[in-house]
């Protein structure tokens, strides 16, 4: 019995360090996206470095027009902005998790953790604030275009589009976080 207490006392600090600091945070009943209005500079730098590394590792330039839209994010309703940002982050997370570019995985660890937390926060806000919201026609059309691209485009072209336009995704996240002030 005494040995168990000593082992727990000795291993406790090691176990605390075994779990990453950036693990997903549990939510309460409130919704706050304010931290995404101005992401921490180190998060933005990690994303910038990942994009730069990607551009050095590959010369792909697929012609997916997924991020070329005729409408501005700021013109969407707040719930539509949240849905848009969540869908874009979901694409980014999917391509980074299943990267086809050798060497990108190491550079994408911090951005991937940031994107995953942001997506979780966006989902929570939709569940709390607008659980029955239906996307507007133009957003619904874009979401269908996204689903079609996921089915028809190659993994490498989806990766290319998601990473090349990653700062557009962050701009849409910022707009969703700013609510009516976007």
UniProtKB/TrEMBL annotation:
<dbReference type="GO" id="GO:0050778">
    <property type="term" value="P:positive regulation of immune response"/>
</dbReference>
<dbReference type="GO" id="GO:0045087">
    <property type="term" value="P:innate immune response"/>
</dbReference>
<protein>
    <submittedName>
        <fullName>IFNL3 protein</fullName>
    </submittedName>
</protein>
<dbReference type="GO" id="GO:0007259">
    <property type="term" value="P:cell surface receptor signaling pathway via JAK-STAT"/>
</dbReference>
<dbReference type="GO" id="GO:0051607">
    <property type="term" value="P:defense response to virus"/>
</dbReference>
<keyword id="KW-0732">Signal</keyword>
<dbReference type="InterPro" id="IPR029177">
    <property type="entry name" value="INF_lambda"/>
</dbReference>
<keyword id="KW-0964">Secreted</keyword>
<keyword id="KW-0051">Antiviral defense</keyword>
<comment type="similarity">
    <text>Belongs to the lambda interferon family.</text>
</comment>
<keyword id="KW-0202">Cytokine</keyword>
<dbReference type="InterPro" id="IPR038326">
    <property type="entry name" value="IFN-lambda_sf"/>
</dbReference>
<dbReference type="GO" id="GO:0005125">
    <property type="term" value="F:cytokine activity"/>
</dbReference>
<feature type="signal peptide">
    <location>
        <begin position="1"/>
        <end position="18"/>
    </location>
</feature>
<dbReference type="GO" id="GO:0005615">
    <property type="term" value="C:extracellular space"/>
</dbReference>
<dbReference type="Pfam" id="PF15177">
    <property type="entry name" value="IL28A"/>
</dbReference>
